[in-house]
Model the fold of this input.
Amino acid sequence: MSFAVIQTGGKQYKVSASEILKIERLNDQEGKTVEFKNVLFLNDDKTTEIGNPNIQGAKVEATILKNTKNKTILVFKKRRRKNSRKKYGHRQEISLIRITKIFSKEGKLIAQAEAKKEIPAVKAKKSKTELERNLKAEENRKIQQKEAVKFQTEEKQKVKEIHEKTKLKAKKSDLDKKKIISKKKPLTTKKK
Done:
C-alpha cells in the first residue's frame, strides 16, 4: 500500500489514494484540483523516499469536495474570586478534500484513486445510519411509552387505595366521636 506524508496548514497528514481528509481551509473553490508540493515522505510497495525536508519534484493531487466549518469549540475563561467569566465559541474553517493521485520525484504515478465519485456514497452512508438511528429511536420511544402507561396505571391504583384507606379512617373516627359523645356525662347536674 502506497502512501505519502504531506504538510499543509501547519500540520502533517499521512495520505493515500481515494482518502477523504479535513484540512485547514483552502482558498480554492469546490471541485477544483489542488497540488500539494510539500511532500515529506513517500512510500511505495517497493521503495521509500525521505525528504530533507521536502522531496523535490514529488507532489500529491487532490480535489476539494467542500469548504465548510468544523464543529463548535466552546471557550470558557474564568478568573477566580474576581466575578470575571467569558464564554464564546469558535468554528474553524476547513476544507474536505479527496486525494486523487500521488506522484514520485521523477513524476511517476505511484497511486491513483478510483474513478467513482465519493460524495454520493458519503450521503448514502449517512442516510443508512440515520435510518438505523431513527428505527432504534422509534423502538425506544415505544418501550418508554409502554413503561409510562404502566407506571401511570400503578400510580392511579396506589392513589385509589390511599383514598379508600383515608375514607375508612374518617368513618371510623366519626363513629368513635359519636360513641364518645354519647358516653359523656353532662357537665352540669341539676339540683333537686
